[in-house]
Amino acid sequence: MNITTLYMNAKAAIAANKIAKMDADKKAAGFLMLLALAFVAVMPEVAMAAPWDGAADKVLEIFTGGLTRTLAIIAVIACGIAAIAGKLSWDWAIKIIIGIVLIFGAAAIVDYVISAAS
């Protein structure tokens, strides 16, 4: 075997491995979608055909609840530690802060726009 044959064999093996990983990712994504649909189907808000407001309020509660607040606090602490160590990427810090403002200020922003439009 010469070097060209070895290179071609390695290239084919890498391509086959990438295809196998993509197939596995597609299967995993399909399974997660099926699991999410099954979960939503057994939720009382959806299964009992309750008004969509109840389900939407649950989603809003998930995004602005205690766990999300805790994760936001941890993200800000991580930014502070990185700043102290001199390893803070200001690009990431700005993205984190803007994300937190948009997530927790979303209701106030929407209320402001609605009141300004009427």
TrEMBL record:
InterPro entries in the record: TrbC/VirB2
One Pfam family per UniProt: TrbC
Superkingdom as given in the UniProt entry: Bacteria
Segments traversing the membrane: 59-85, 92-114
Alphabetical keyword list: Membrane, Transmembrane, Transmembrane helix
Keyword Transmembrane in annotation: yes
Protein name listed in UniProt: TrbC/VirB2 family protein
Organism: Thauera mechernichensis
